[in-house]
Design brief:
The chain has 135 residues and is mostly beta strands. It is 3% helix and 52% strand. A 5-stranded antiparallel sheet has the order 1-10-3-8-6.
Length: 135
């Protein structure tokens, strides 16, 4: 089946929270369940950003041990720096064109006292083996 339900798998990397400090996201394995997803997209979902700068950094790894920031040439769109002037209650989509197996979304927070509310979801798409099994 070639519909969204059978071909994508959203995975939470940064759970929704009010953040005032730097955070490391949960790892997302593109080989999830042996399905070997060919594509990925990161969605940042924001609520109110009251102060500070919250800089999103998408990381990649071959071995789930050594991590590096994804090169801008492997991204569709740009990693945002969220501030109070960013507006609230929005979504920002960033496509991933790289080939690494593991992804995570980190955020570096500077000068925040009350911070900002946001989350990051990595949506895996186009598995080599389908359909996707949702749990």
């Amino acid at each position: 089946m070639r519909d969204a339900y059978n071909n994508i798998r959203p995975k939470l990397s940064l759970p929704p929270a009010a953040r005032t400090a730097t955070a490391t996201g949960t790892v997302v394995d593109r080989a999830d369940g042996g399905l070997m997803y060919q594509d990925a997209m990161v969605t940042i979902v924001t609520g109110a950003i009251t102060d500070g700068t919250h800089t999103v950094d998408i990381k990649e790894s071959d071995d789930n041990s050594t991590w590096s920031s994804v090169a801008s040439s492997d991204l569709q769109g740009a990693e945002p720096a969220l501030t109070s002037s960013s507006g609230g209650s929005s979504t920002i989509d960033i496509g991933y064109k790289g080939t690494k197996r593991y992804l995570r979304v980190d955020v570096a927070v500077a000068t925040a006292t009350t911070g900002g509310v946001y989350a990051a979801v990595v949506t895996l798409a186009n598995p080599r083996v389908a359909p996707v099994v949702h749990s």
